[in-house]
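From the pipeline queue, job 12 of 40. The input is one protein chain; the requested action is below.

Action: predict structure.
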Amino acid sequence: MNKKKGVKTLGQFIIEKQADFPFSKGELSRLLRDIGIASKIVHREVNKAGLVDILGNAGSTNVQGEEVKKLDLFANEQFISALSSGGECCAIASEENEDIILVDNAVSSNAKYVVALDPLDGSSNIDVNVSVGTIFSIYRRKSLSGPAMLEDFLQKGTEQVAAGYVIYGSSTMLVYTTGKGVNGFTLDPSIGEFCLSHPDFKIPENGKTYSINEGYYVHFPEGVKKYIKFCQEEDASTNRPYSSRYIGSAVADIHRNLIKGGVFIYPTTSKSPKGKLRLVYECNPLSFVVEQAGGKATDGFKRILEIQPESLHQRVPMFIGSNEMVAKAENFMQEFSPAK
């Protein structure tokens, strides 16, 4: 008689996969556990945000010049606290902080890892009850001893040992990769555990959805304009026109496309000539996840993960999603590049 397959929690899954990292003595597993704990706390506050004084602006701006939401600050504090007390990382880089945060305790002084994160992506959607998320990226430190250095974070995305995101929506999901495929875990509030719900994520090779803020159309590069028009043309052989779906939270848009297929584009504009999304703690981790699921991520010309970061808050354009759709958008970028 076949026994009913049991539920596998995030903690169980991480322990089972620990053997994939012979260089690690459990530190990476505990670090991922700490991220899971912090995300549960943020989930709790997101879900009761309308009932407490945690919505709205905090009355300040972050290093990006963006308005800080109260829940931004809360999420930032929770992740920094969990990662600091866990002792498995020696430094943290956050969207909300101009400089890296050194973890100053005896346990962390010899820690092997640094963590870069966007504690609450899409926070402008908080007040209107739309999905938001957390993005995280983990690197092995390059500095050999002493306090961590900025250079520990300025590594190419190909050097990530783990990365992922948490999406706080109709359900809360944690999706991550350690370079051996992508797995998704849904939070079961009744037991307070993330449970494996989407093993071995695979993004479809093609899709029917493009995600871009078309309100900035006149400010887009010519290649992006041409690609949008291509998406809107009728052609039964390629299932066009495609549907336009843009949530305004990169995690939510990319998560949808990861499941159903599609492309998410955040290009340069005349106002943001270098792009808007941050390379180190947004584009690199999301690109790592999508590539591990079989997708593609570029800046319109070259692979995101091969870009050498020059600064902590460096911005780049991003084209990410199903292989065929990203490749097609790249073709338009290259064909209509001013450099041609």
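Job complete. DSSP finds seven helices and 17 strands in the chain.
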